[in-house]
Amino acid sequence: MPRSIVQISGHIIDSLILPKVLDLIIQLGAEFEILDIQIGHRRADRSQARIQVDAATQELLERVLAKIKEHGALPVEAEAESVELQPAATDGIFPDRFYATTNLPTWVRVNEQWIEVEGAEMDCGIRVDLKTMRAECIPIHRAKRDDLVVVGHRGVKILPMERRVPREAFEFMSSSVSTEQPKGLLIREIAASMKRTRAENGRILVVAGPGLVHTGAARYLVELIEKDYVQVLFAGNGLAVHDIETALYGTSLGVYLDKTMRASEGHEHHLWAINAVRKAGNIRKAVEQGLIQSGIFYSCVKKGVDFVLAGSIRDDGPLPDVITDTLKAQDLMREKVRDVSFALMMATTLHAIATGNLLPATVKTVCVDINPAVVTKLTDRGTFQAMGLVTDVEPFLRELSQYLSPAENAAAKA
After folding, report:
1. DSSP assignment string, 335-360
2. Concatenated DSSP letters for 151-180?
3. Quick one: which of 111, 137, 220, 395 has the fewest CB in 10 Å?
4. What Rg value do the Cα atoms of the chain yield, rounded?
5. Is 118 helix (H, G, I), strand (E, B) or coil?
6. What does the alpha-carbon distance between residue 386 and residue 249 come to, in Å, rounded to a whole number?
7. Omega into 166 within 30° of 0, i.e. cis?
8. How far lies 219's CA from each of 65, 133, 186, 404, in Å?
9. Residue 111, class by beta-carbon neighbours within 10 Å (0-12 exposed, 13-18 middle, 19+ buried)?
10. Measured between alpha carbons, how far is 161 from 278 in angstroms, rounded to an integer?
């Protein structure tokens, strides 16, 4: 019977790494035997375990080893094995059986030394430069002919994410999408985490959908921008169009936000807004010319917030700032997330999942949506560090903005 002995170490008990590994082995149809285990006596102590994995076939064993490796379980013999490298035969194509990455911190063993892989990102390959002894994640379309790419799982190890101590309240509920969560407490903890991020000069990414404008929540995002809690904004054509429509006409989808009534010929407003910005040249020029004098993108321009607008097939116009080449949009988003420490995703399914695919697991990620399926899809796609909050975006942003206000800070200190 095919067999392998794996070893895991770290905070494998309180981070639930050990039970996850054992559960995966059973779920996939293999068997395990814990050969030895050393459990730390204090919270700061590390633990380690050696586990024998038995499978009916070599194929099943390899599948089990590949899955449990995502939680840091590495075959004992692999500590001395080097990666297998094969050259890309042509641009834009990886070698067969290339190693598909996770978003966890990853190392590869090359010439008897472990090298950390730069730019952790899921669903990519690993390119190794033997001259500089550097390894980096790259998407398929960035592969160049003769690039050396890691093939198979040999010589690759992953560092699983461990729970921080002390833990924040919403970390306990990271896998839950219940509508009965204590939202006030979670929002306060999210605000506290954002404050810590900025106090440490970390950058905050916001990913938002047009629902922010339709529900009247845009003003609270503006407050976050003005308070310096947004350094990067990802969105589509819709958020920008309806934000600018509101700035020019006071409507969103032709409905007056202050009167909740439809404007005469209001269905034309968002198209007129697009045309006006195209005439000005782009959003920045429209702000500089005085055409746009309020709203999310007005504040982004004034505060120097980076924004990336990725287009889709259904876009009207689109605005001149919208990137219609999906690979170019992906690459620019990939560049902008490299130094992000915190990501807040609100009222958007496609952009949340797309951004989640680009984020390393070390980036704390919060997803807010009225639809529980959005959070579920995000975690199912591999962004398992995402913490979900099921609620309307308007009351969430209103309360978050209050917790981030100077008055709230002063009250907390008193």
Report:
1. HHTTTEEEEEEES-SHHHHHHHHHS-
2. ESSTTEEE------SSPPGGGTTTT---TT
3. 111
4. 24
5. strand
6. 36
7. yes
8. 49, 49, 21, 14
9. exposed
10. 45
Indicate the length of the chain as a whole number: 414
Q: Are 337 and 358 in contact (CB under 8 A)?
A: yes
Q: How many angstroms separate the CA atoms of 173 and 186, rounded?
A: 9
CATH topology for 169-413? Rossmann fold (3.40.50)
Which run of H or E residues covers position 110?
A: strand 106-110
Measured from the Cβ of residue 392, the count of other Cβ atoms closer than 10 Å reads: 15
Predicted TM-score (pTM) of the model is 0.86
The arrangement of secondary structure in 1-76, i.e. its CATH architecture, is: 2-Layer Sandwich (3.30)
Are the CB atoms for 296 and 303 separated by under 8 Å?
no
**Paired tokens of 278:** 């195209």
In CATH, the number for domain 81-161 is 2.40.420.10
- Domain extent listing, the chain: 1-76, 81-161, 169-413
288 sits in which H/E element: helix 283-288
Terminus-to-terminus CA distance in the chain, angstroms? 66
CA distance 338 to 308: 14
CA-nearest of 91, 190, 201, 186 to 145 is: 91
- H or E element that contains 38: strand 31-38
- Of 354, 363, 304, 305, residue with least CA distance to 334: 354
The answer to whether 84 and 22 have CB atoms below 8 angstroms apart is no
